[in-house]
# Entry
Amino acid sequence: MNIRLRESEPKRILIVNRGEIASRVAKACRELGHTAVGIFTDNEMNAAHLEFCDEWIHMKGSTNAETYLNVEGLLKIIKDNNIDGVHPGYGFLSENGAFAKTLEKEGVAFIGPHAEAIRVMGDKATSKALARDAGVPVVPGTAEAVPTVEKALEVAQEIGYPVLLKAVAGGGGRGMRACLNDEEVKAQFEAVGREAVSAFGNGDLLVEKLIVNPHHIEVQIMADKNGNVFHFYERECSIQRRHQKIVEEAPSPFIGEDEELRKRICDTAVKLAKAVNYDSAGTVEFIMGEDKNFYFLEMNTRIQVEHPITEEITGADLIICMIQSAFGEDLQIPSQEWIKKTGHAIECRICAEDPITMLPAPGKVTGFETNFPQGVRFDHCLYRGLDVTPDFDPMVGKLVAKGLVRDVAIRKMRAALDGLYIEGLKNNIPLHKVIMDEEEFREGSYTTDYIKKVAPQERINTDVDFGSVYKKLAAAEARNMGM
# Structure
């Protein structure tokens, strides 16, 4: 890659994203002495991340296609503003290999992995084949798409039910359907294919063995351009709704004190990253059964939403490492042994959604106050007057609590949730409170069917605690008056 500037010189970095991750990237850029260049759209003229940027560029439009996915428009901004590097955050163009390749041709650093790694790991069939060749365990099933329902039935009968019909290009829980017998495969095959075409433009399907009572365990890795790959331990991401994470922990309570298993899964993630010559932040996702056997699921070739909990237990700044790697700089990590984990961290995704139905609930923030205990971090884009529209993702913040041990982290998180007040915007804070109090979560024995099995959303008290609300309003008024 032909990067224009020497590593000792400040860079101009365009942040092609919004919300809390744009603020997070801007802070990292400024810490390194680079210029953080932010984007704002027609429907986010007062976006919170602009406060942390050095320069601001208006991009006309309000939809994803008009703004953060508008490659032609972004390239013009890059050329007109002498941009040296682009950080895509997560979502949008963060896993778009063609965009990364285009930037490479322009001599602009894509702050993420190289385009070929994105391409290979972005296709479930290709990434699974690579994993198998690298000696990484994969879920029994097809390495390539099955062309017909007859072939799907043949594979299902061979590996045994239950099985999962899964879109080759899927993600975020879309294009996936569990089948318990031949009849369900016959009934679901075409429907899943249509869903995959609609969501991803590709209707090809894989057939995989369905792991019963699974845990979703992922490993954070970081690599430079000199072939060095490090892991930053694992995260447990098993509490999900519609296959999308809402609570994450590091380290995994299911792995617990089994350091041999922890080393094995983390070393496996590093092995896979090396097999694709990886060179940035990435997350290798595994599914782990009750017997603690684990299998490769996919690799996310970007920074993850839940990266703060890894930062909290390791002391690393993963965004800074990404920027250093993109410009060919030293990560300043002497060895894997140098990376230590301490304590336990939990993240609750704070979303503008109905806490019972867990569906998006756009609205306007009319009040926002926090009163957190020590050991709490809140990455967010909230401010009074914020309009949360249907145009973008409903997540407005990530509440992170750290403790010396898991019980302390849970206690701090529960107190932090009580101390987070968002007025005017329906949100999922009540759901998180129920989860933090619930026995199965506290025991750390939950699996990916937690929401369906335990149904914490059904335990939410819909009665308003006016006493608590009035206390928060009084405290906020006192602060506004300088008391």
Remarks:
- Confidence is low (pLDDT under 50) at residues 1-7.
- The chain is about 35% helix and 25% strand.
